[in-house]
Amino acid sequence: MCPRCRRSFDPGVRFCPHDATELVPLVLYEIASGGRRDVAPTGVLAKICPQCRKRYDLAATFCGRDAAELTTLN
After folding, report:
1. Euclidean distance between CA atoms 52 and 47, whole angstroms
2. Fewer Cβ close by (within 10 Å): the C or N end of the chain?
3. What is the DSSP letter of 22?
4. How many structural domains does the chain have?
5. What is the pLDDT of residue 34?
6. Backbone phi, psi, residue 48, to 5°
7. Secondary structure (3-state) at 72
8. Alpha helices in the chain (DSSP H)
9. What mean pLDDT is reported for the chain?
10. Residue 7 belongs to domain spanning
11. Can you tell me the distance from the alpha carbon of 48 to that of 53, in angstroms, rounded to the nearest whole number?
């Protein structure tokens, strides 16, 4: 769970693809925040990490694996 933008992600993702914040376990986030969660994906996988080549939602900015800035697919 991203403590900054309050989005949740799949297991194994270490950094928020939207703002590069290091993620925290959901249970710790819920204790600290009172359970607030916002999710706003577009459903369009239109960005890619230039380092690991993983694809991300159009709304993402950073890679969840290595925190690299994403590039838009043409």
Report:
1. 12
2. C
3. B
4. 2
5. 60
6. -140, 150
7. strand
8. 26-33
9. 82
10. 1-35
11. 6
Q: Is the pTM value of this prediction over 0.70?
A: no
24 & 43 share domain: no
**Residues 31 and 51 occupy one common structural domain:** no
CA distance 74 to 64: 21
Q: Give the sheet arrangement for strand 47-48, strand by strand.
A: 55-56, 47-48, 71-72
**Shared domain check, 31 and 1:** yes
Contacts of 68 (CB under 8 A, 6+ apart): 49, 50, 51, 52, 62
Q: Which residue carries 């693809």 as its tokens?
A: 17
The whole-angstrom separation of Cα 42 and Cα 28 is: 26
Rounded Cα distance between 32 and 50, Å, is 34
- Helix (H, G, I), strand (E, B), or coil: what is residue 31? helix
Q: 28 and 6 share a domain?
A: yes
For residues 25 and 57, give the distance between their C-alpha atoms in angstroms, rounded to a whole number: 21
